[in-house]
């Protein structure tokens, strides 16, 4: 697929936009990148683009441009409601996403992994599992390296392992994964979608182009139906599925295939992630014993129920990656000690009422921060004592005051970080640093 004489626009000069622009330029397109921000770091990136023959338009001018392009690529992180995109919509532009663009140049099978929670962990589990089993792959997509960048390396690979978000799936048309993994679905991103149905529909697009020779590895609890691919189900709770759990044993049709004690993972959520990875192994005909090697080596990334210190017999756990209620609920379920919970952050449009019963059962005190603090207090104050804190340092101090030796202070916000922090990693790093200062 050569793009000589094609005029292409890329909206967004972030990591995905940059990768898309470079791919388009390599394939012969005349590329212009638009970004309404005018930050210094973008100017540096724009200079690098210009050196490659890629034009850039930054700042307010990007929102006023005349649209005359054969192809328009929309970066997944850009909300379609912003003026930059609306200007293109008013001029009848049709959008392609970075994920879709990369797939059009892809000549290798794709494993695509989506879900509200657990995407990154499962993507990395699959990557390491396949590599240790002798299958050449690389993790890319929403996980960090854009799919458009990974495409450059496809001659070195047997298969792509791609983490995909609902934002990326909004703009696909031909994207067809050989193995599509659906981990779970819970309320999230209601600051972008009109309702849960619209969010769910975006995620379900992962299965749209699959055929009978493909595989769908799905969480049986979400009751997906009408799939064209061969379906492999998993279930961490009572009920029928191909993969199931008994204690620490992961079973396939009732037979042991992996003992979680041989891995570095624990908890119901990680049982689901491991079963999803094993479902990929089954789809690719990888023996269980070979799959177990990589799964046993894997260690969690930071900010995912990460123990960061102990002060006066109180254990501090950083679960800043919990950016929705399901992630918070699973973090609470995995705790065996009394919990003082620090939660709250950006208002993403969903209430916290649904986990009040779990909070009552697992939490001895809640410390609340961010835009959501008042709303969460209204939901939880009938079942648990609540304290509101102005910032994270104050929240940690308040949590210490309410914890005694033998307790756990769990920092699991249950929503995103952008009201007070750059991102969840910045939020988690600040939590870790403060706890380490206290420990010293």
Features:
33% helix; six-stranded mixed beta sheet; 3 domains; alpha/beta; Protein-Tyrosine Phosphatase, Chain A; UDP-N-acetylmuramoyl-L-alanine:D-glutamate ligase; 15 helices; single chain
List the helices and strands and how they pair.
Blueprint: E1 7-11, H1 15-26, E2 30-35, H2 40-51, E3 55-58, E4 71-74, H3 83-90, E5 95-97, H4 98-103, E6 110-114, H5 119-132, E7 137-141, H6 147-150, E8 159-163, H7 166-169, E9 179-182, H8 196-204, E10 215-219, E11 230-234, E12 243-246, E13 249-252, E14 255-259, H9 268-283, H10 288-297, E15 306-311, E16 314-318, H11 325-333, E17 339-343, H12 356-362, E18 363-368, H13 373-380, E19 386-388, H14 392-401, E20 408-411, H15 424-439
Parallel strand pairs: 1-2, 1-4, 2-3, 4-5, 6-8, 6-9, 7-8, 9-10, 10-11, 16-20, 17-18, 17-20, 18-19
Antiparallel strand pairs: 12-13, 13-14, 15-16
Helix pairs in contact: 5-9, 5-10
